Amino acid sequence: MRVAVLSTIAWRTPPRHYGPWEQVASNITEGLLSHGIDVTLFATGDSITKGKLEYICKHSYEEDKSLDPKVSESLHIAHLMEQADNFDIIHNNFDFLPLTYSRLINTPMVTTIHGFSSTKIIKVFKEYNDTNFYVSISDSDRSSELRYISTVYNGVNVNDFILNEEIGDYLLYFGRIHNDKGTYEAIQIAKKSGMKLIISGIIQDQKYYVEKVKPFINDDDIVFVGHSGPEKRNKLLGGAYALLHPINFAEPFGLSVVESMLCGTPVVAFNKGSMPELIVDGKTGFLVNNIDEAKDILNYVEKIDRKYCRKWAEDNFSQERMVNNYIKIYNRILKRQIKTY
């Protein structure tokens, strides 16, 4: 089987720091390779893979501001599509733009929908219902207007995360600094509980950061440490009392939630989007509806079995499980045993 994995070029694959789509594309690529599958990754030229690498742009446009994103993306996608006949399956992790090629090529395309940036883009997905095989990353993140071949939860390499059975003494916010992710709400939860909060992530919305986050940072009980690489990430996640995930949108998935549980750290999240699918309420964390509920539930976090957090995440969100599910999908398509719903 020859598979082309199409990643984005906003960031390197895998990303140096932030880049959830790129991280998942990398996990898919390397996982398929471990099964002996012939994989070509289409990503930035500085991407890292054990497979074949094809690229147009040496660096990502977020790291090389001389690149025009639209021009770079158009050339990047076309570079794969012009070679479509060389592959048995194209696995699209690049949102809706590649769909517009699907009636011009013979190779079947699997598209993992990593979320909808706007309801307006659903029109494109709907237009190509008949020529694509859509995969949702959670049952909650589905459009009634689309037909799906399956739901496949994002998977991570569990060996990259170390279980820490000791209960930490600080709260952690780990994610982009943006209203969607609830940075301000995490600060308020920490303030009300009287616990220290460490904030780690990239500043995605500068205005939000200046107005809602920066005024509280004091390097005492509210500490901002910027983005964190793998080694620092493990230490922060594993050493926390709990991860705070007070999202303000219906998040399609949450890699940091899974990563936290792999380190044994329970998650306190607002009950939105995919959170009920990722968190076992009362066993790997708690689902709450507001800041006050989050503050009150922190008293019960220490009763969570951190070993069980790890086991739950291993059993449900491993790279191996994700890749096995995608291989089943590829085989169904190639054998024409196709059912969408």
Folded structure, characterized:
With 341 residues, the protein is of the alpha/beta class. The protein folds into two domains: 2-157 and 318-334, Rossmann fold, CATH 3.40.50; 158-316, Rossmann fold (3-Layer(aba) Sandwich). The chain is built from eleven helices and 13 strands. It has helices at residues 20-34, 69-81, 122-127, 183-193, 206-213, 230-238, 255-262, 275-278, 291-297, 306-316, 319-334, and strands at residues 2-6, 38-42, 52-54, 89-92, 109-113, 133-136, 148-151, 170-174, 196-200, 222-224, 242-245, 267-270, 285-288. Strands 3-2-1-4-5-6-7 form a seven-stranded parallel β-sheet, with helices on both faces. Strands 10-9-8-11-12-13 form a six-stranded parallel β-sheet, sandwiched between helices. Strand 5, helix 3 and strand 6 form a beta-alpha-beta unit. Helix 1 (20-34) crosses helix 11, helix 4 (183-193) crosses helix 9 and helix 7 (255-262) packs across helix 10 (306-316). The longest helix is centred in the last third of the chain and has 16 residues, at 319-334.
Features of the shown structure:
341 residues, Rossmann fold, alpha/beta, 13 strands, globular
Task: Describe the secondary-structure layout.
Blueprint: E1 2-6, H1 20-34, E2 38-42, E3 52-54, H2 69-81, E4 89-92, E5 109-113, H3 122-127, E6 133-136, E7 148-151, E8 170-174, H4 183-193, E9 196-200, H5 206-213, E10 222-224, H6 230-238, E11 242-245, H7 255-262, E12 267-270, H8 275-278, E13 285-288, H9 291-297, H10 306-316, H11 319-334
Parallel strand pairs: 1-2, 1-4, 2-3, 4-5, 5-6, 6-7, 8-9, 8-11, 9-10, 11-12, 12-13
